[in-house]
Amino acid sequence: MGGGIGKSFWVTAAIGAVTVLAAFSGFAAEPQPWQMDLQAPATPIAEGIASLHNELLVIITAITLFVLGLLIYVLVRFNARSNPVPSKVTHNAFLEVAWTVLPILILVVIAIPSFRLLYNEAEIPPPDLTLKVTGHQWYWSYEYPDSGGFSFDSYMVKTPDLKPGQPRLLTADNPMVVPVGKVVRAVVTASDVIHAFYIPSFGVNVNATPGRLNEIWFKVDRPGIYYGQCAKICGFDHAFMPIMVKAVSAEDYAAWVEQAKKQFADADARPSPSMLASAASEQTR
Ligand SMILES: [Cu+2]
Description:
Blueprint: H1 2-25, H2 44-77, H3 93-122, E1 129-136, E2 139-143, E3 151-154, E4 176-179, E5 184-190, E6 195-199, E7 204-208, E8 214-218, E9 224-230, E10 243-248, H4 250-263, H5 273-281
Helix pairs in contact: 2-3
The structure holds copper (II) ion.
């Protein structure tokens, strides 16, 4: 009996460990089939979020098992059959202090890393680069005020137009490009309704509100392509305005800026509002 429980425990633990390893091994910056954990963090903030999440998981598991143990103990020890003459005790000063002080201590233990994380998210370090991100119904536009001042729109690539390996509903025609290892400050707003700029692997989620500028920052650890989505129900094509970020080396970033300045220089070449409206209405779902 004891051996059986031990075996099933180890099997469960092994499955859990394999799942965690699988979730982290690919350094996936997009949702994976059967993903069990958070996306692999790509910024210090996302790492902080993941480690707070893991700490909380340990704490809530311990609390749940402790309460479960107490309940089972009460069921076994104090049911009418095994305890026919109930105790008349109604107060126990030690227990009452303990079950007040202990939860307070647990909350303090949770609050310290939580407040540290909130502070680090809100306190933007001196930025190497500032971007302006604008949410529209239903696409994003990115502006690079200190890399030449160009801006461009970023639309979802429709399913029939995807190239092999490009994830469906996440690929954008003009991805946002950022250098790795640099503090990027993004100033986020919207032109019509409230959107939200959400990149899970960056630990970034901020409202894009018309008439307001919200700021977030991120410093990407390693080159790659990272995906996010609008996280505010913003209308008809809410699900079809993905965020695609390409993080590249400083040299590649400089080269991209030179190319992008030319590519996006001609403001007249950008689509007119009526073209945008028809493009949005014919998107493939
Ligand atoms: Cu939106």
